[in-house]
Amino acid sequence: MNLKSNNPFLKNKSFTKPVEATVFDAEGRPVEIIDYNNTMTINGAINKSFILLFVLLASSFFTWYMVNNGQNPYVVAITGGLIGFVMVLIASFKPNYSQYLAPAYALFEGMFIGGISAVFALYFYPEIIMQAVLGTFVTFIVCFLLYRFKIVKVTEQFKSIVVAATFAIASYYLVSWILSLFTSWQPVHHGNSLMSIGISVFVIVIAALNLFLDFDMIEQGAKKRLPKYMEWFSAMGLLITLVWLYLEILRLLAKLSSRD
């Protein structure tokens, strides 16, 4: 079966390379040996996801502390975001370095999240941050339970729809950004109009659907007994989706707040 994820990070060809270990019995027939110490497991990916999440949260809180003590939040956010993006690019081409790149990504992405969150708290209200965190956590738990109990099944058609929708969102954001740089055109998703709010809700739904594909890809990677470093790689991919989901929820709450 051709497995695909709408998370570009999880499309890496390493997810199609099982660990090869051929052993032959006394009669020369190949025997399958499973070495769980050197292969990817679901529990291993989950544990590493928690580690990365802890690093991201710790970095975010420290960044928040720095901003409250006079650090420019924009400088911290841009620096963390750019370095985090570089970590993702390197890991995409060198997944075997994921055990080092994934924690680094979580660290610098935490700086980005902390800086952006501080800006939103300043311009809107402090409680918006906890509301966005809670919304992200609840969405993750609901999606995980729906996937765990097979209420939502990740079929090829499901994947195709989510991939197409994600590509459309990415294309729209890119074109909007370019036009806003060189023209006076105001992107539709900016502001607090009902259409802008509707777009945010749609993007949040697509981001949440990413979680189903990420869960499926991790499960399939474990079944294929991919190399151990793919636990870090897949955990990094899942964290990317969670960061996207958090930012979209934060933006939606800001739009709703500005309408009051």
Automatic annotation (TrEMBL):
Pfam families: BaxI_1. The chain crosses the membrane at residues 50-67, 73-93, 100-122, 128-149, 161-182, 194-213, 233-254. The keyword Membrane applies. InterPro entries: BaxI_1-like. Keywords: Membrane, Transmembrane, Transmembrane helix. PANTHER family: CONSERVED TRANSMEMBRANE PROTEIN-RELATED. This is Bax inhibitor-1/YccA family protein. It comes from Flavobacterium alkalisoli.
